[in-house]
UniProtKB/TrEMBL annotation:
Gene3D superfamilies documented for this protein: Di-copper center containing domain from catechol oxidase
Coiled coil (residue ranges): none
Disulfide bonds: C77-C93, C92-C158
Keywords: Copper, Disulfide bond, Metal-binding, Oxidoreductase, Thioether bond
Official protein name in the record: Tyrosinase copper-binding domain-containing protein
Covalent cross-link 2'-(S-cysteinyl)-histidine (Cys-His), where: C161-H179
Family per similarity comment: Belongs to the tyrosinase family.
SUPFAM superfamilies listed in its UniProt record: Di-copper centre-containing domain
Cofactor: binding details: Binds 2 copper ions per subunit.
The protein's required cofactors: Cu(2+)
Keyword Disulfide bond: yes
Pfam families associated with the record: PPO1_DWL (PF12142), PPO1_KFDV (PF12143), Tyrosinase (PF00264)
Amino acid sequence: MDSPSKLLPLFFALILLLFLSIPLLNTHFSLLSAIKIICRRTYKPSYGLATTSNQRDRNIDQSSSISRAISPNISECFPAVLPSNAITRTDCCPSKPPFSKLIDFKDFASPNATLRVRKPFHLLDEEYIAKFEKGIALMKALPDDDPRSFIQQAKVHCAYCNGAYHLYHPFQETQLDIHRSWFFFPFHRWYIYFFERILGNLIGDPDFALPFWNWDSIEAMKMPSCFTNPNSSLFHELRNPKHLPPHVIDLNYAVGNIDVPSHQQVLYNLATMYKQMVLASTTELFMGSPFRLGDNPRPGIGSVENAPHNTVHTWVGGADTPHHEDMGTFYTAARDPIFYGHHSNLDRMWTIWKTLGEGRREYSDQDWLDSEFFFYDENANFVRVKIRDCIDTKKLGYVYQDVDLAWLRTPPTSQKSKLLRQKMKAQVLSSKPRELPLVLDSITSVIVKRPKKLRSREEKEEEEEVLVIEGIEFGSDKYVKFDVHVDDDEERLSNPDETEFVGSFVHLYHGHGHNISTSFKVGLSKVLENLEAEEDDDVLVTLVPQLHLSPSEKRLKLLKGFVHNFVDEVR
């Protein structure tokens, strides 16, 4: 992947366009879909980005040298857009920034500095846990108007995630949300970096490193015990009591999931990690889609942000609060101390992903590198940071302790024969044409044409075949999850540790009063190879909605959908 002839590797994108809609005024979840299949060849995101349909629609001149980097207008902070029945007020604005004291980040670690080492909670000794508890306690004891206080730090996350900050003119109506785009990883890296520095300053230890919840490790697939002591500053009331230790975490959790035996859940988790890390071989698949000035602010979610990021948030969140507060929804998530251990491990995933080969690297796009965020440091200085300055954790003074990656040795496997998969495809192809509109009250399968078949090893190293579900639209205050299967049997759908189960789209409760339009992508190259389907002309794609309904909603029709169009189109 490093040879000059491969500087501009391409990938094929196999597009399945599904337009999903959840009416804002109704209580039920409905799915409105118009299906298009498009064969599209574009530059691999790590080396260049093609013009998106969103950019074309807005008539933005792609040849312009004007920067389209994002910078929030922090001079104004609006009421946050919260879910209906929110348990807090809409004031998510952090302490008003002192613009006269604004400084640009320059506090890079010197080349000879001793690096802080972030360690997993399950390998910490009692002394280190006590330091972490002390730091959180001191942060909680600060006055509420101190920008370093625990509540003010939590408000930072709410402001950046729930629309309290807008962009500058002429995009002042665009509410900034750092999820579902290429901002997810760098924003949270900066966020917990300053949180870590504040903790270290309060306990008088500049070498303090924020531990991580190592939920991808077999030994740590349960909530760290230090968070369950009612007398600890790490304890939080609003958590699901059924998910306390020794309960094994579900990294692909859906609200209402039926528990499986612990040993089986561990295998599911390992396979989930393999899929989210290994199958996401391109920058966009892993980090999320580009969001520049003038773009759709929620263009597409990255693999790990979907799961285990969103799924762990929901798994930890309260069972009896309206939207699984605190961890289960973004406006309150950072009020739970476990949030920071969760995101420390997510940041670790970014560092690991780059080591998995196939030319993996971050975006080199200047609009991404020049985008800005604002934080308070340990001395309450107001600091402006750029994404380009957080790429290398060593320059920020920290690294992660090496831990065994069992999931890297645990790829999913298929229990179904090729003959059975071909039979299932044939049944869908030969079935009676569906009457339109179609009610989607259960799983739905469609045949999708492939852009190319039987590629050479060299082509597969340069190209990725990607299934893209685009134009997903739903009400922002809804919990949405659907699983995606390829060449599977509707009568016996594969489990998360099987190859045919390729991924899940997950949306947490967010704001209310508006629709979200976004996309979902998953790599298929390794999947098709493992299924011996590389010579097939098409794939069978099955969507499996996972619904969470209130008691009143359960009395309504669970899912309605209308397939309006089926177009086989080549661009």
